[in-house]
């Protein structure tokens, strides 16, 4: 079937929560990455540009970090827009997962880390309800990405 695992009401509230954080996609995307690189320094090893950056301030100013933060938010935004149709959703998640598994060889646990940081940021900025309504979405994203990794032999 081409329906998602989220009910219509869940999709509505998830979209509402996401819209609030996506309004400032570049700043919030950057904040998420800076927090990830600071709290999980090993994640920097995948980004040749960011390797030498140690201070959060330096990362915040970096065009590469800002650019990638925006990219991450734009990819998630694309997924959020297609939550009601699992075929469309998978059409976005699958190539992204394949690229990270085969070309970039990113550890799949990093997706969970990014999602958890997004949820933290949502809670800090907009409260617990926002976080709760978006949690199912991050679980969907991470589950599908992990499945793609398994298919690619991880």
TrEMBL record:
<dbReference type="GO" id="GO:0020037">
    <property type="term" value="F:heme binding"/>
</dbReference>
<keyword id="KW-0560">Oxidoreductase</keyword>
<dbReference type="InterPro" id="IPR012292">
    <property type="entry name" value="Globin/Proto"/>
</dbReference>
<protein>
    <recommendedName>
        <fullName>Myoglobin</fullName>
    </recommendedName>
</protein>
<dbReference type="InterPro" id="IPR009050">
    <property type="entry name" value="Globin-like_sf"/>
</dbReference>
<comment type="similarity">
    <text>Belongs to the globin family.</text>
</comment>
<keyword id="KW-0963">Cytoplasm</keyword>
<dbReference type="GO" id="GO:0004784">
    <property type="term" value="F:superoxide dismutase activity"/>
</dbReference>
<dbReference type="GO" id="GO:0005344">
    <property type="term" value="F:oxygen carrier activity"/>
</dbReference>
<dbReference type="InterPro" id="IPR000971">
    <property type="entry name" value="Globin"/>
</dbReference>
<dbReference type="GO" id="GO:0019825">
    <property type="term" value="F:oxygen binding"/>
</dbReference>
<dbReference type="GO" id="GO:0005506">
    <property type="term" value="F:iron ion binding"/>
</dbReference>
<dbReference type="InterPro" id="IPR013314">
    <property type="entry name" value="Globin_lamprey/hagfish"/>
</dbReference>
<keyword id="KW-0408">Iron</keyword>
<keyword id="KW-0813">Transport</keyword>
<feature type="domain" description="Globin">
    <location>
        <begin position="5"/>
        <end position="150"/>
    </location>
</feature>
<comment type="function">
    <text>Monomeric heme protein which primary function is to store oxygen and facilitate its diffusion within muscle tissues. Reversibly binds oxygen through a pentacoordinated heme iron and enables its timely and efficient release as needed during periods of heightened demand. Depending on the oxidative conditions of tissues and cells, and in addition to its ability to bind oxygen, it also has a nitrite reductase activity whereby it regulates the production of bioactive nitric oxide.</text>
</comment>
<keyword id="KW-0561">Oxygen transport</keyword>
<comment type="function">
    <text>Involved in oxygen transport from the lung to the various peripheral tissues.</text>
</comment>
<dbReference type="GO" id="GO:0016528">
    <property type="term" value="C:sarcoplasm"/>
</dbReference>
<keyword id="KW-0349">Heme</keyword>
<dbReference type="InterPro" id="IPR002335">
    <property type="entry name" value="Myoglobin"/>
</dbReference>
<keyword id="KW-0479">Metal-binding</keyword>
<dbReference type="Pfam" id="PF00042">
    <property type="entry name" value="Globin"/>
</dbReference>
<keyword id="KW-0514">Muscle protein</keyword>
């Amino acid at each position: 079937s081409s329906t998602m695992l989220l009910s219509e009401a869940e999709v509505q509230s998830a979209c509402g929560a996401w819209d609030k954080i996506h309004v400032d996609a570049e700043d919030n995307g950057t904040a998420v990455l800076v927090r990830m690189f600071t709290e999980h320094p090993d994640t920097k090893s995948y980004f040749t540009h960011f390797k030498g950056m140690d201070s959060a301030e330096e990362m915040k100013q970096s065009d590469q970090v800002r650019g990638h933060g925006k990219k991450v938010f734009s990819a998630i935004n694309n997924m959020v827009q297609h939550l009601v149709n699992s075929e469309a959703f998978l059409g976005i998640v699958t190539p992204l997962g394949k690229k990270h598994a085969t070309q970039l060889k990113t550890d799949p646990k990093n997706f969970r880390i990014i999602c958890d940081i997004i949820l933290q940021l949502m809670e800090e900025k907009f409260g617990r309800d926002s976080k709760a309504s978006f949690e199912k979405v991050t679980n969907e994203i991470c589950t599908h990405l992990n499945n793609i990794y398994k298919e690619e032999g991880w």
